[in-house]
Amino acid sequence: MPHESRGAGKFMILPEFEEALPDEARAQVAEVKADGNLSRHEKHDKIMTILDGLSEEDRARLPAPPLPPWVHHLDDGDRERFEAIHKDSSLGFRERRDKEKEFLESLPEEVREKMRRARSQSRGRMRGCWKRHQEQNQ
C-alpha cells in the first residue's frame, strides 16, 4: 500500500497519534490497515469506528490534532469557538467532525468563501502543519 509508512491517505492516522492509542486499539487499527480486502473507504470507516469506541479517558490522552491552516481566517471569537470544539475530548471523532461542520456552516457566506479559498490552497500541507504544531508544543 503506497505511503503507508508516512501515514498518508484518507484512512490513515498520523504515527504520533497511532502510538498514543491504547494497545488494543492500536492492534485493531494495524489489523484494519493490513487487510488488503478492504477498500480505502472501508478502512477509513473501520478505523473511525475503532476511534469512536475509545473511552473519554483514552481520547483525552491522545495528542490534540493541529488546527487546519484555514481556521486562521476566522476572527478571534469564532476561532476560539472552533478550537473548543476541535479539542473537546468528550466528543467522538465523527461527532466532533459533525459539530465542526455545523459550526462552519453557521458562519456568514463571505467568511466561508474566504476559508474555502484558503482551504483549497492548503490541501496536502497538513503533515507539515502537524510537525509545526508538535514543535510549538514542546
UniProtKB/TrEMBL annotation:
Chain residue ranges for the region called Disordered: 111-138
Biased composition (Basic residues): 114-131
Organismal lineage: Eukaryota, Metazoa, Ecdysozoa, Nematoda, Chromadorea
UniProt superkingdom: Eukaryota
Protein name: Uncharacterized protein
